[in-house]
Design goal:
By secondary structure, the chain is an all-alpha fold. It has 15 helices and two strands.
């Protein structure tokens, strides 16, 4: 993909224009993940029948406990403790399914849909992280559909953010940018009275869209979207943390680091080095005051900076061939 992106920059076309489908390679039958993910696959993709299957819903679910379980597993996920949540996710998804089945109407049903959306969003992020992309898509799609059914646009937008990350990881850049931008239109914060959650959700979508545009050789669009993310970050003021949303941390430091990541993707190592020196939000001495980045974001920033210092001379862009890109 990196080679295709370099060619796209020279030719002045989108990276996706150079992608061609070929015959898939056979999948190994002895893939250990087939067994390891069996219980989670059953929870996410239950078998269908024309007749009743399984026992009816039993005791009344505890939605607060369900929310706490999702939160605790989110803490483990963002702490890179994947082994711990692997065993909990099937239990969590089944509990969420039971809650939705038990409450078939009213406010409790709406709340159960929101809780299942959050659980599925976490499952989708985890599966994307371990490169189980098809199963991740099932979870991400379910998260969005549940939140939409509940009428909660912010939770649904969080699910869209997870879907965008999955699409970028599977080289579906056009779709990732499109769904992020269209969702930004729906959840755009009001000029007055918007909450940090609203700014963080909107700004997080802008970062996802910018990442897709940068990888798709659309630097102009990526720049505009990064500007939008920066505007949201300034409105938040300092790092905002919400583990039940796709973006665990969002603020000026996160937005600045994502900008450098996009520059590096675009092959612009000089801008990475220049901005790392000029932008005060990227100086570690200011991170405590601004709320700082997550551990992963901080590590990625240091890697991008290291790569920028050793990257070979940039590919010359032929601007006369670039057209609208």
């Amino acid at each position: 993909m990196e080679t295709l992106h370099k060619l796209a920059r020279i030719l002045g076309v989108k990276t996706s224009d150079l992608m061609a489908a070929g015959p898939p390679q056979p999948v190994k039958h002895d893939d250990p993940n087939s067994q390891n993910l069996r219980e989670l696959r059953i929870a996410l993709t239950p078998a269908l029948s024309l007749g009743p299957v399984g026992a009816p819903a039993g005791e009344e679910p505890d939605l607060r406990r369900l929310s706490r379980m999702t939160y605790d597993n989110s803490v483990l996920y963002f702490g890179d403790t994947y082994r711990s949540i692997a065993a909990d996710l099937p239990v969590l998804v089944r509990a969420a399914n039971d809650a939705v089945a038990y409450y078939d109407s009213g406010e409790e049903h709406t709340n159960a849909l929101v809780e299942r959306s959050r659980a599925l969003n976490l499952a989708g992020r985890y599966l994307t992280q371990i490169r189980q992309f098809d199963l991740a898509h099932v979870a991400a799609r379910g998260a969005i559909e549940d939140a939409e059914a509940a009428g909660d646009n912010l939770v649904a937008a969080s699910g869209v953010g997870g879907m965008c990350w999955l699409l970028v990881r599977t080289e579906r850049f056009d779709e990732a940018e499109d769904i992020a931008v269209s969702t930004m239109d729906v959840v755009e914060p009001k000029i007055m009275g918007a909450t940090p959650d609203e700014y963080a959700t909107w700004g997080g979508l802008a970062m996802e869209a910018a990442a897709a545009a940068a990888r798709n050789n659309r630097p102009g669009e990526a720049k505009a979207l990064r500007k939008a993310a920066g505007t949201a970050a300034k409105a938040v003021g300092r790092t905002h943390r919400n583990l039940l949303r796709h973006w665990s941390m969002f603020g000026p430091v996160t937005a600045a680091m994502k900008e450098l990541e996009d520059y590096m993707t675009e092959g612009d190592a000089r801008s990475v080095i220049r901005k790392s020196k000029e932008d005060a939000t990227l100086q570690e001495k200011h991170w405590k005051q601004l709320g700082g980045p997550s551990t992963n974001d901080g590590n990625r920033y240091r890697l991008d900076l290291a790569r920028a210092r050793v990257v070979p001379a940039p590919v010359v862009r032929r601007d006369h061939l670039r057209g609208d890109h």
